[in-house]
Write a structure and sequence with these properties.
Tumour Suppressor Smad4, 298 residues, 2 domains
Length: 298
């Protein structure tokens, strides 16, 4: 029996309730057609990591924020189907839904495609940070689909750290280090870097392996630091990046959700070796969707 979990966005907007009703009805219809499906439905606020174990398909109903908020619970073997419950194409106040290739109009057909094993499978790279404390403890953060921030917990104070990648080393302060996957560039990175800087950076990206590389941006540093150590300001790399904190207290934040705190002296290593996310699409691959989105840089 196919085991399906539906995670939905729950708020005061009736459009999400209507979308959930449509999805559950379509699943019940498919279950009768296929001789039975096991279907569990959970609100985003009530779902737990254990709910995702052993699923054959996870359906996320909402927008990109709903997907990123629960994606850290999903392992590399579980297919994920994103369904935009409130598309911006129909309402300017809706969700853009970059990761959501399905919507209520297409859901019935897309569901059958997914259950038949005919969807496009996108293996999305994810970032994580490994934190080594001064007491010898090691923590690994949840995987990040879009971006990962390392910064001082007191945002009015600079983030001070020793930065190392390979043989390159420097002591730097900024308003935080932002790391982004190739697909996450359209989230926070492009806004933090600016259009002109993104144009320059993306010129380096076109012919390199996107699944092994990631972006790094030191936010709000002086022009002299940008010119003297360009690798430490804005880069596209497949090497691990390690910092040793010179902050009294800092945090690592994957995808803007859970905070993992550390103290002065801790070492934090970021890489793109976290388990990938198996995202299903139905008309275009995520690579094609991103290339269409990136045209505004040209």
């Amino acid at each position: 029996m196919t085991d399906i979990l539906v995670v939905y966005k729950k708020n005061f907007e009736s459009v999400h309730d209507a979308s959930l009703a449509h999805v559950t009805k379509a699943l019940e219809k498919s279950s009768k057609k296929r001789g039975g499906l096991r279907i569990d439905v959970r609100a985003r606020e009530q779902v737990r990591r254990a709910d995702f174990i052993g699923r054959d398909l996870v359906i996320v109903l909402g927008g990109d924020g709903t997907l990123t908020s629960v994606s850290h619970n999903i392992d590399a073997a579980t297919p994920v189907m994103g369904v935009n419950s409130h598309p911006r194409s129909e309402d300017p106040n809706g969700s853009f839904g970059f990761y959501m290739d399905s919507n209520i109009e297409t859901f019935d057909e897309d569901l059958e495609t997914a259950l038949d094993g005919n969807a496009i499978i996108n293996e999305l790279p994810r970032l994580h940070a490994i934190i080594d404390s001064t007491s010898g403890n090691r923590f690994t953060t949840d995987p990040a689909m879009n971006d990962l921030l390392i910064a001082n917990t007191h945002q009015y104070a600079p983030s001070k750290y020793h930065l190392r990648r390979g043989e390159n080393k420097c002591h730097q302060q900024s308003s935080g280090l932002l790391f982004s996957t190739w697909l996450g560039q359209g989230a926070w990175l492009s806004n933090a870097a600016g259009i002109e800087d993104m144009k320059l950076l993306l010129q380096r990206v076109k012919n390199e392996q996107k699944s092994t590389h990631y972006f790094v941006l030191a936010r709000d540093i002086s022009p002299s630091e940008r010119e003297g150590m360009p690798w430490s300001w804005m880069d596209w790399t497949d090497e691990p990046t390690t910092i040793t904190s010179d902050m009294h207290r800092g945090f690592v934040v994957p995808d803007g959700w859970d905070e993992v705190h550390f103290n002065r002296g801790a070492s934090i290593t970021v890489n793109a070796e976290a388990p990938k996310l198996r995202l299903l699409t139905f008309r275009h691959s995520m690579k094609d969707r991103l290339e269409g989105l990136s045209n505004h840089y040209d």
